[in-house]
Structures are given as C-alpha cells and as structure tokens.
Amino acid sequence: MKTILRISAILLCAGAVAGACAEPAASVYKTKCAACHGPMGDASTPAGKALKVPSFTSEAVLKETDANMLAIAMNGKGKMPAWNDKLSADQLRALIAFIHTFQKKPQ
Hints:
By secondary structure, the chain is mostly helical. The chain has helices at residues 2-37, 46-50, 59-63, 66-75, 89-103. Helix 1 crosses helix 5 and helix 4 crosses helix 5 (89-103). The longest helix has 36 residues, at 2-37.
C-alpha cells in the first residue's frame, strides 16, 4: 500500500511539474509576443497589421523548421527584434512549441 501511495505521489508531482513547465511559455508569449503576433498567433493586432507580421498558420511560417524559427527568435528578422539577450534558448524553444499549438487544426 505504501508503494502505491509513493508512486501516486510521484506521478502527481510529475504532472504538476509538467503543467508548471507549460505555463511559463504561455505566459511569456502573452507578455512578449502577443502584442504583435496576436493572442492566437493570427497577427490580427494593430501592431501585427502595421508591421505585416505573418500569421503562425500561414504557408510561409508552416514551412519553417524549428531550427529556423529558433534562429529568427534569437537573432531577429526584419522588424522583429532579437530575443537572445532577453530569453534563454530553452525559453525560446518552449515558445516555439507553444506556437505549434496555434498551428494544429481542430479535429
């Protein structure tokens, strides 16, 4: 019985850690990215429209590899600023994974 309780506690903690890891990317996106890219990644904000930011579901963005997206996020591109001095590579990778959630089509 003690073993079952220990395993349950470990699994519960693992789930809490996984949830905590997912939240920071969403929070970082909301504070750092959404002003231009939009809350759903569609670039429908005034800044996104003015800067001609592509939607994360556009053909051009869908063709980008994660490595290219990471390079763009780190170094900037066009009017997008570089984030390598503000966010770690791990944070940027988490943001890219979060961005992919906008790209999934509803079933």
